[in-house]
Amino acid sequence: MTIIEKKFEIGGRQVTLQTGLLAKQARASVLADIDGTSVLVTLCTADITVDKGFLPFSVHYHERTYAYGSIPGGFKKREGPPSEREALTSRLIDRPLRPLFADHYLQEVQIFAFLLSSNNEVQPDVVALIGAAAALELARLPVLGTIGAVRIGCDEQDQWTVNPADKDTGKLDLVVAGTADSIMMVEAKAQQIDESRMAE
What we know:
The structure is a single chain. It is built from three helices and ten strands; from the N terminus they run βββββαβαββββα. The protein has about 200 residues and is α+β, with helices and mostly antiparallel strands. It has a six-stranded mixed sheet. Strand 7 (about 150-155) and strand 8 (about 160) form a beta hairpin. It starts with a strand and ends with a helix. The model has no long low-confidence stretch (mean pLDDT about 85).
């Protein structure tokens, strides 16, 4: 399989999507990277279709301690069940992707996202979501479009920032995902921001 790599820029940060090097047995795999925060996303589907009356679609996001440069020690030497952040990131990926599937498609689909390395300036949730969207596109499943995602912040000077560092989100930390013509998901936390500013 040929290694394919695409690069583009969002908010002054370099986004790199690579496929063909890792996880070759998956139906689709993408190594997504934004300024050193790297997430490996794999997508697998069942070989047969079992009509369960719904789409058996699951998303699992995992952070390993080596991604932050540490090794568990002391009493707890193994990594435990998913943390709250991992569960919320899994949900963040699931919500915009699930409505894209065609109604007739009922094969089981699993997406796994593994944080491989972390840059404290770039949060991994949007990186994982962009990688999952790319993997879904590569898998050539019957979906209704391709999504993109971005984090928007509002600093103390009331200026919008795209893909801000965690400490620079200021009064607003918003993640939005959608297709070219519709918004699929918005998740935000804000501190006393005007409704008109939020709508903007």
